[in-house]
Amino acid sequence: MSDKYILGIDQSTQGTKGILFDSDGKLVCRFDCSHQQIINEKGWVEHDPEEIYKNTIAVVKGVIEKSKIQKSQIAAIGICNQRETAVVWDKTSGKPVYNAIVWQCSRGQAICDRIKEAGHDEQIKKSTGLPLSPYFSAAKIAWILENVSGAYEKAKQAELCCGTVDSWLVYKLTEGKKFKTDYSNASRTQLFNISSLKWDSDVCELFGIPLSCLAEVCDSDGDFGATTLEGFFENPVQIHAVLGDSHGALFGQDCRKSGMVKATYGTGSSVMLNTGELPIFSSKGLVTSLAWKINGKISYVMEGNINYTGSVIGWLRKDLHLIENIAEAYQLAAKANPQDQTYFIPAFTGIGAPYWDSDATGLFTGITRITGQAEMVKAAVDCIAYQILDIINTMREECDTKLCEVRVDGGPTESKYLMQFQSDILNVPVQVPDLQELSGMGAAYVAGISVGLYQEDKIFDHITREKYESKMTLDNSSKLYSGWKKAIRLALSHE
After folding, report:
1. Which of 48, 306, 359, 374 has the most CB atoms within 10 Å of its CB?
2. Which residues fall within 8 angstroms of residue 473, CB to CB, at 6 or more apart?
3. Do 419 and 209 touch, CB atoms closer than 8 A?
4. Cis peptide before 354 (omega within 30 of 0)
5. Lowest-pLDDT range, 143-152, 230-239, 397-406?
6. Within-domain flag for 433
7. Number of domains the chain contains
């Protein structure tokens, strides 16, 4: 099988990538398509599921044609996806009944409030490992069923499919033959009992979501059906891995052992600590999820999710016009006056872990006469590192663990300024791999291992990492973090 390739489909918040890996697990080619961000005056965020599917077809064709390999050389497909984003579609026609509601969207807050007022929030957290929040899929699906005419009635008749983006793509790619999801994605819906490893009927009833509308939950390295990609492949190609994007990155970073930590910097961020075969339930604002089920074995993670990290840089460029491009943000941050004490809290749609305040609003604070363009940009860049530190400090407290390193991935990790500041403020080494397609690579590697193309104990050997070590004194990093915590308190108290 030396002439075989694994195709990774990375369906993320901003777009979709087709990624090709050779028989040694090395990246051969990549092809991208972005999709529209549908945002209204209320700050609600949506995607068009049909556009996402269309782009998925396009990137697969594009990457194969660009690489000039033969279509018959594709051994298997692995899919990773933006998590929590919810899609509801007609089981017969395959047509969405509404746009996909994106993970960033908090429109389900009233539904969560209603459930909390009825006294069920602790029940939900105990079952799912997740604090009751509109961040997760359940409230988004419930909103669609409650607000789209006829949707709830059709759901009760088992005429709708309610799922995450992975299950939508599997359904479409297999021409409606398979409605499946994996354990990692199921655990992020707020409908899945992470101890019994089943959809929780009581929780589903609280959200008004019929069990008959939910996908079959499969091992992450399982058989998700085959696709011809609408006739593009002469012979159907098997989909042999599905993972949520952060879980894919955890696997791609080779954080397969308990105690290992990775942080993914994307539109938002996910910080994950692999806790092994036993779940550790958080009392301080983090969540417990399933890392995956691979080779028949479950692994758990403790995780903190951040709504806005990399997207803050886009906001500086598109909305504030403080920078012309992403690189300029990091250049200005490095040149800013180190005496400036400006902080930025990016609570555009509330604050995620470990605070979980959907009503919090963003703010700049600490501005003085020495604050200028560079200093405001620096505050926005630095907020990425501070938010990661919030999560990792909470993990340190709850798991009583001493971290040896943090493995990182995502576009912002290309910034030497940000990575050095991240190491400084964390006070541990930060390891940046020599490639950035960790989410898609993780899903592709799982698929490659499952079909026997890759050896699990050797496939990660080719990855090299750049190491950033802290150069800041503990006194200085503590003082900076104290200022951040003060700014957070202002945002939380809405002053």
Report:
1. 306
2. none
3. no
4. yes
5. 397-406
6. no
7. 1
